[in-house]
């Protein structure tokens, strides 16, 4: 069946012609709604869903993973540069070094929400490569700084430039994949962070051998070469980065329609769970065939929705319990291992297997999480791994048993890296409406990344080699996350049960389809994913 013979009972909001972007930007899912109750197989008998997903994966994930690998590499390589002599050569005090770490996370956090607002106005293939070029230039300039002021300024602008990548990509993925597929893709994308950790150690080990080339120290070449690589990849991403499904040239017209149909009819029904059918509501306009269109919201209206939603704040607490340990390990792992008594070269290399193990664990856990349709049980296990890992580090003298600290570092990485995409996906799964989701995810990631500022200041030089303060603070954040997770799961269960009872009692009978549709994740038909 050819694409021009398809007569859908819903409307697609924007043309597959790329020139559609020349006018006012349109949301790919604004007006895609099915009313006839047909399944995907009935509506699209010639479409192989697995084949379409494979095409999407191949065209989206590799490029996004490379971009995030470079992002995480560029923000975290200062930890590798430190043990190669950065602090001594620039004459930095311990507090000055920590301030350079901290300022990155302040600007990074402040500019994430505005960046996602810009993403709603521009194509991803324009906005993301542009900010990538900006941070690549800043990273290169870090290689020629000569004092604290120069390094501080570079880290400040690096935070501004990098702010838009992660929340932007996390949001873009929700515009391509259904809720039950998203964590595996988020993990594939985020696993680049753990791979970046491994590459960072290997690259730092190799590049540091350039010490003295062109009269520059080895740590300067770490910044210069990795910055230049970022700029080169950014120029290629202008052509390699995809925008939204309705403009995807690698999909046929029928496949584009199929992808939009899947997203419009997606729900938080877990595999094997009981579906909640809209026929349970006796609509006052049940016979209407008028397409339901998501109302456009201003950025401030979307922000107001997010700030007034209780779940966004609880998800923020859970996020802190993951992001503070994440930045703690990414910024200070080389230093922690160095203080176990190893040389700087060996410390660089000993971080590599930890990150490789974390990358494998992230993807494996995400696959199982999507398979069973649950997030919270896996996140709980991750947090318990963190508790055990940090407890090993707090309770052990590295001079007596350095192997215990190194083993604890494995448990920390195996807990924190798989948890990160799980927490991001859980929050995204429970936000309905593309405008609220875009701002909600940026708020979640942006404000949550202030945790990096905490992590930058809790591992103090005077606390080496045990770093009891830093490890203990991490345990405190993890404990808060366990509390937040418990409250979220309890509340979600109660709300889901309440909505089911209200449907059965007919409380919402007589409402129009549009009134229920406009309620978003507050709709009686909406079920929070656990």
Count of the separate structural domains: 2
Quick check: average pLDDT?
82
| Residues in helices, as a percent range | 55-70%
Based on CA atoms alone, the radius of gyration comes out at 24 Å
Structural class: mainly alpha
* N-to-C series of helices and strands: HHHHHHHHHHHHHHHHHHHHH
Q: What is the level 1 CATH name of the largest domain?
A: Mainly Alpha
Instruction: Report the strand count.
Output: 0
Measure the end-to-end span: 39 Å
Q: Quote the beta fraction.
A: under 5%
Summed up, the helix count is 21
The CATH superfamily of the largest domain turns out to be MFS general substrate transporter like domains
Indicate the CATH topology of the largest domain: Growth Hormone, Chain: A
- Low-confidence region ranges: 1-36, 270-279
CATH level-two architecture of the largest domain: Up-down Bundle
Largest sheet: none
* Shape, per Cα inertia axes: globular
Describe the overall structure.
The protein is mainly α and 530 residues long. The chain folds into 2 domains: 55-250, Growth Hormone, Chain: A (Up-down Bundle), CATH 1.20.1250.20; 302-505 and 514-529, MFS general substrate transporter like domains (Growth Hormone, Chain: A), CATH 1.20.1250. Helix content is 66%, strand content 0%. It is built from 21 helices and no strands. The chain has helices at 40-43, 49-82, 86-90, 94-110, 112-119, 124-141, 148-162, 165-174, 182-207, 218-240, 253-264, 299-307, 310-338, 344-350, 352-372, 376-394, 402-429, 434-448, 451-458, 468-505, 513-517. α2 packs antiparallel against α10 (218-240), α6 packs antiparallel against α10 and α9 packs antiparallel against α15 (352-372). The protein is globular, with a radius of gyration of 24 Å. The two termini are 39 Å apart. The model is unreliable at 1-36 and 270-279 (pLDDT under 50).
């Amino acid at each position: 069946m050819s694409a021009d013979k398809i007569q859908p009972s819903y409307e697609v909001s924007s043309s597959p012609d790329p020139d559609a972007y020349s006018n006012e930007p349109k949301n790919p899912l604004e007006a895609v709604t099915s009313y006839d109750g047909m399944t995907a197989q009935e509506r699209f008998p010639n479409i192989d869903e697995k084949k379409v997903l494979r095409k999407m994966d191949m065209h989206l994930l590799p490029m996004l993973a490379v971009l995030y690998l470079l992002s995480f590499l560029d923000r975290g390589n200062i930890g590798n540069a430190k043990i190669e002599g950065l602090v001594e050569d620039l004459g930095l005090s311990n507090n000055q070094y920590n301030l350079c770490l901290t300022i990155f996370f302040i600007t990074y956090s402040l500019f994430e929400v505005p960046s996602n607002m810009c993403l709603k106005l521009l194509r991803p293939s324009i906005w993301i490569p542009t900010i990538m070029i900006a941070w690549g230039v800043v990273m290169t300039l870090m290689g020629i700084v000569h004092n604290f002021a120069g390094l501080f300024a570079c880290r400040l602008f690096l935070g501004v430039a990098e702010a838009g990548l992660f929340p932007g990509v996390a949001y873009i993925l929700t515009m391509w994949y259904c809720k039950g597929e998203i964590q595996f893709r988020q993990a594939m994308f985020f696993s680049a962070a753990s791979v970046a950790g491994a590459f960072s150690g290997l690259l730092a080990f190799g590049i540091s051998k350039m010490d003295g080339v062109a009269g520059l120290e080895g740590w300067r070449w770490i910044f210069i070469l990795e910055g230049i690589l970022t700029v080169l990849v950014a120029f290629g991403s202008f052509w390699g980065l995809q925008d939204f499904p309705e403009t995807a040239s690698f999909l046929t017209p029928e496949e584009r329609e199929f992808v939009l149909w899947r997203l419009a009819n997606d729900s938080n029904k877990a595999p094997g769970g009981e579906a909640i059918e809209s026929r349970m509501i006796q609509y006052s306009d049940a016979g209407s065939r008028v397409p339901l269109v998501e109302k456009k919201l201003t950025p401030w209206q979307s922000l107001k929705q997010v700030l007034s939603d209780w779940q966004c704040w609880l998800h923020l607490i859970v996020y802190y319990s993951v992001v503070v340990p994440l930045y703690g390990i990414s910024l200070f792992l080389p230093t922690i291992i160095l203080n176990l008594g190893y040389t700087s070269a060996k410390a660089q290399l000993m971080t590599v297997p930890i990150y490789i193990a974390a990358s494998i664990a992230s993807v494996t856990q995400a696959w199982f999480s999507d398979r069973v349709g649950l997030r919270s049980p896996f996140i709980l296990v991750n947090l318990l791994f963190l508790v055990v890992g940090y407890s090993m580090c707090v309770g052990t003298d590295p001079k007596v048993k350095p192997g215990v600290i190194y083993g604890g570092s494995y448990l920390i990485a195996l807990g924190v890296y798989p948890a990160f995409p799980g927490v991001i996906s859980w929050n995204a799964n429970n936000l309905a409406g593309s405008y609220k989701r875009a701002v909600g995810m940026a708020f979640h990631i942006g404000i949550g990344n202030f945790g990096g500022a905490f992590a930058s200041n809790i591992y103090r030089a005077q606390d080496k080699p045990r770093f009891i303060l830093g490890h203990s603070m991490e345990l405190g954040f993890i404990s808060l996350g366990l509390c937040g997770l418990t409250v979220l799961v309890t509340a979600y269960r109660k709300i889901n049960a309440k909505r089911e009872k209200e449907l059965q009692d007919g409380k919402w009978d007589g409402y129009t389809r549009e009134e229920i549709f406009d309620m978003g994740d507050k709709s009686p038909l909406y079920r929070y994913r656990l």
